[in-house]
TrEMBL record, chains A, B:
GO molecular function: hydrolase activity, acting on carbon-nitrogen (but not peptide) bonds
Keyword terms of this UniProt record: Signal
TM regions (residue ranges): none
Amidohydrolase domain segment(s): 70-545
PANTHER family referenced in this protein's UniProt entry, alphabetically: IMIDAZOLONEPROPIONASE, PROTEIN LONG AFTER FAR-RED 3
Keyword Ligase: no
InterPro entries for the chain: Amidohydro_3, Metal-dep_hydrolase_composite, Metal_Hydrolase, YtcJ-like
The organism's place on the tree of life at top rank: Bacteria
Protein name per Swiss-Prot or TrEMBL: Amidohydrolase
Statement: the UniProt record of this protein carries the keyword Transcription regulation: no
First and last residue of the signal peptide: 1-20
Length: 554, 554
């Protein structure tokens, strides 16, 4: 960023309309227009408030004097990407937790644990995940003593790769009061030495709770660090705004702290985790847009069913690979309508998790039922809308429903989905194009940290229905592929619309916030594999440099 | 407020240093100087940011052009008053609750209840207090049927004047599931008809809980209304800032909503109700000053003992009127130090409730113990410091302790205090002058809604040690009287200091926020009874008119 000249106070007063402008010029710029078509430009003039004053094309006269001038050197400039479904704090905490999944021996794991503990001396507990004694060739579970040898002064608690066992050191066992006298809980097992029953350090399934209830909740400092970490990770992948699904009051307070002290860079559209958090965070309705449109509580996240992989998704017909079950509802129709009413009455937006076709039909029916009472611009969001009965497609096009979907889930899940659903129901799976065609607004996200928060991977999946390996040939259910422009809209302007943010950000047009990326290639022209490899060089949010590859911690 | 002229953008740019000034001129102005002496002036020039640009004296040249000009017409202008101990939301909720204490017959009470219910159709429950069947000449408790006759469509719950009984209508009894089959709880009694055991509607002592656990918690709208009401009540008495003792997360969210939407007029220095609320509200430390210094979480309120009236205050020697008890500690020395450490470690300010001489000695010992570890500018606050052993007076002068005291408690409590303490211990009661003389900083407040939030009554009590009736002749323990200047300092600059706000507000000097009152008399010259009758005409906060007697709802 080059500071060209600071004009005098007098000149500033005369130079209507803007007072401290930034000109980003000499770029290969692109945005979508109001109808989703591509608009190309070569410069952006941004005002002191971070809003775009003028979009400049080749040949347009440049302002004579500006306060800041940035030479884009011909780089490609595109709108900041909006992830419409993620978990901001989960991304941060996930990144901060010790990850042992790449270790290939106990000694290597021990070294990594020791280094991590040394690097984080102020952590009251050392927490981690991902170990697998099979990969270590150990032939047995590891022991508390093997942990004590590297961290003996504070509790250590590390969960196995499958999440079904935990490995504690002696301090953690002591904190939990686990001794030879402790009985195995129902559904769980305390691994013990052959004689005397002394615990070895590994606790299986329900026995893990014996320790986990003593793991301290994160401190505010930890939350602030998680937020800073999540922001870095998201900006590095070009995400400038995220719909945060399941915001707690603790999360919200961390967002406000960052807003108050000027370290909130990412835009966060928050959906509270349940109606109690909604009321505590928002009060009598959605919050205002805070901190130059960086933060707003839009509404509430509700759950109707579980996930497909664990057969918790609620299906109309039995699972193909488990004919005794159709999954289950977390929330009944009556409960759902009660919760929806409570939120809609105060004009909170509803974002409702529905994976299975029965769950989606249930949400559609609830929306149809409530739309007569709760009129106006509601933008009912169905989160995931993963498996939909084709007979229900058309219902998505009514009442202004938003299909908030995650392209990478399709490529990650497809073999599992084929097993769960059998061949007959696949046409209703991840049916982006079909739902969009009905008139539903399609907003794309990652569900990070469940998946990596990488919108370029999402864009590639969206236009190919293929994974990073190019499989399957021709794409999975390829009739659901989108055009590049449709996919980009789902990651930009539609994401803004889905969060009541259109006109504020999502497109690079006069009056919107200047949120843009400088990247090393044109995503509208790159091959799918090149698109996945897009490198983000700089991220600008609200007209200010928010992340720079040249200086970022990696 | 008269708008004289809007200067042009060009003239604005040239008219250094301020851009949108307000001149309040032709006033009989007064503030305290840095040493607590009186400084008189005739005009204030206030910048666009609400800070004082210049204090103008007779003969000082006035600026040639200002954006707003206010002619004070010779009125008396004084600093806004700081109430260093109150409960903002309690003041608002208290004012919003139906008050039956003035009713003299059942019929009059019924009429008042009916009118209140009609005036508040959106309240899910009708709540009130203050009834007394003795004053009504009823010779019995009132009945549910007598309430049903005036409010039958929603629950009504009214507590007796002494707080030891509640009167429910049939809807409230039904909501609580109370029938003839319900047994009396331990320590409580359900009033019943002679035959059949049907509840009459009145519940005594512990039986009140049967209903109270079903009384809905306030909705965010209710909290917002309570805050608006409290602000009106406080501003009307000249209070421009309050230390809010025992802030909950719900309170804080209401304050932030008001700050976010521009309706926060009062300055609030918040002390969280306990360390959990402290951490949730403040995070890793005190919040920043928010909304132009209108809101900050300074620290945490802790309790060491109870109150003198109920013999909950912890005394060194037995109560004079109950020799079997010395009162009791709510928090032990060890607990207190643990809680203080947790707060002080993260630089939260401590505000510790201590009424009895034993409790005050305990807090002093804890502060002395911690001062070696938690060094620097801590401003340990002792709230009330009501009864202090004269042997402990000098300890208040060390470690920067603040004695946060409430003058009106002295006049309200004196007969009760004499009964509880006997004649020997009165020299340590409400010992403002003695504590200030040791070097402790004296900050005055009201404890509203326990007392009325009226600083003029407090000023009069502070300089007389007499009640509004002029009793006792010569003043109670008159050696503790303060000068007017000392009392005013305790309601202004010392209150700011006690909240880490010195330099921001509390005095009318260049660089501080322009928080001032226009009043109808000079509190430094009025007789004590005239001082109590001071009428506040206008309240200006941050250089803007915040309350005006001419237009205020009464």
């Amino acid at each position: 960023m080059i500071r060209l000249a600071i004009t005098s106070a007098l000149a500033l007063a005369l130079a209507a309309p803007a007072q401290a402008d930034t000109l980003i010029d000499n770029v290969d710029g692109m945005t979508l227009d109001a109808t989703g078509g591509v608009d190309r430009f070569t410069g952006l003039l941004v005002g002191d408030d971070g809003r775009i004053v003028q979009v400049l094309r080749r040949g347009d006269k440049r302002p004579g004097k500006v306060d800041y001038f940035v030479d884009g050197k011909g780089q490609f400039l595109m709108p900041g990407l909006i992830d419409s479904h993620g978990h901001v704090m989960g991304i941060g905490f996930g990144a901060l937790t010790l990850d042992l999944s790449e270790t290939t021996s106990l000694a290597q794991a021990q070294a990594k644990i020791a280094a991590y503990a040394a690097a984080h001396p102020d952590r009251p507990w050392i927490l981690g995940r991902g170990w697998n004694q099979e990969l270590w060739g150990l032939g047995r579970f590891p022991t508390a003593a093997e942990l004590d040898a590297v961290v003996g002064d504070k509790p250590v608690w590390l969960t196995r790769v499958d999440g079904h066992a935990g490995w504690a050191n002696s301090k953690a066992l002591a904190a939990a009061g686990i001794t030879a006298l402790t009985k195995d809980p129902a559904g769980g097992k305390i691994e013990r030495v052959a004689t005397g029953g002394k615990p070895t350090g590994v606790l299986v399934d329900a026995a893990m709770d014996l320790v986990e209830k003593f793991v301290p909740t994160p401190r505010p400092e930890d939350r602030d660090l998680a937020l800073a970490t999540a922001q870095d990770l998201l900006l590095a992948r070009g995400v400038t705004a995220m719909a945060d699904m399941g915001t707690t009051i603790e999360d919200w307070q961390a967002y406000r702290r960052a807003g108050d002290n000027g370290t909130l860079r990412l835009r966060i559209m928050a959906y509270a985790g349940g109606t109690e958090a909604m009321e505590l965070i928002g009060g009598p309705g959605p919050s205002p847009w805070l901190y130059d449109d960086k933060l707003r509580l839009n509404g509430v996240k509700l759950y109707v069913d579980g996930a497909l992989g664990s057969r918790g998704a609620s299906l109309k017909a039995p699972y193909a690979d488990a004919p005794h079950t159709r999954g289950l509802r977390i929330t009944s129709d009556t409960q759902l309508k009660n919760l929806m009413s409570r939120a809609a009455l105060d004009r909170f937006q509803l974002a409702i998790h529905a994976i299975g076709d029965e769950a989606n039909a249930g949400v559609l029916a609830a929306i149809e039922d409530m739309s007569a009472t709760y009129t106006g611009d509601r933008r009912w969001r169905i989160e995931h809308a993963q498996i939909v009965d084709p007979a229900d497609f058309a219902r998505f096009g009514r009442h202004g429903i938003i299909a908030s979907m995650q392209p990478v889930h399709q490529t990650s899940d497809r073999l599992m989905a084929e097993a769960r659903l059998g061949p007959q129901r696949l046409t209703g799976g991840y049916a982006w194009k079909s739902l969009a065609t009905t008139g539903a607004k399609l907003a794309f996200g990652s569900d990070a940290p469940v998946e990596l928060p990488d919108p370029f991977a999402g864009l590639a999946a969206a236009i190919t229905r293929q994974g990073p390996d190019g499989q399957p040939f021709g794409g999975w259910q390829p009739q659901e592929r989108l055009t590049r422009e449709e996919a980009l809209a789902a990651y930009t302007m539609n994401g803004a619309y889905a969060g009541f943010a259109e006109g504020r950000f999502g497109r690079l047009v006069r009056g919107e916030r200047a949120d843009f990326l400088l990247v090393d290639r044109d995503p509208l022209l790159a091959t799918p594999s090149d698109l996945r490899a897009t490198q983000v060089r700089q991220v600008w949010i609200n007209g200010r440099l928010a992340w720079d590859a040249a200086t970022a911690k990696r």
